[in-house]
């Protein structure tokens, strides 16, 4: 540890004048009380919900249609793959145990 670091740590109270670390215990604090929030009524809740829903970036109609087509195509593709694998494995099992 160089001289500058030692002086800086002394100013901060981390080390004594001879360079040994100081042992200070942190002051004990009373446990913090949890602030209880007041309950709000249904009308205030509805206003807050509407305010949050206004912040949402809703997709356009075209985006919804495009995303729906992509999901349906993926569903059809995966269904066909699973059907084909099931058919092949069923035929293989029947062939093996015949």
Provide a descriptive summary of the structure in words:
The structure is a single chain. The chain has 98 residues and is mostly helical. It has a domain at 60-98. It contains three helices and no strands. It is elongated and about 90 Å long.
Q: Give the structural class.
A: mainly alpha
Q: Helix proportion of residues, in percent?
A: 55-70%
> Mean of residue pLDDT?
88
Helix count, DSSP H or I runs of 4 or more residues:
3
**What coarse outline follows from CA principal-axis ratios?**
elongated
Beginning-to-end CA distance, first to last residue: 83 Å
Nearest-angstrom radius of gyration? 34 Å
Number of β-strand runs: 0
Report strand %. Answer: under 5%
Largest sheet: none
Query: Helices and strands, in N-to-C order?
Result: HHH
Unreliable residue stretches: none
Map the helices and strands:
Layout: H1 3-12, H2 42-55, H3 61-96
Can you describe this structure in just a few lines?
The protein is mostly helical. It has helices at residues 3-12, 42-55, 61-96.
Features:
single chain; 98 residues; 3 helices; 61% helix
């Amino acid at each position: 540890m160089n001289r500058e670091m030692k002086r800086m740590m002394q100013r901060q109270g981390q080390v004594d004048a001879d360079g040994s670390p100081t042992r200070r215990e942190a002051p004990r604090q009373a446990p913090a009380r949890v602030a209880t929030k007041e309950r709000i009524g249904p009308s205030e809740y509805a206003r807050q919900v509407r305010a949050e829903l206004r912040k949402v970036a809703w997709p356009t109609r075209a985006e919804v249609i495009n995303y729906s087509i992509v999901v349906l195509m993926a569903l059809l593709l995966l269904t066909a793959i699973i059907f084909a694998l099931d058919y092949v494995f069923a035929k293989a099992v029947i062939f093996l145990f015949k």
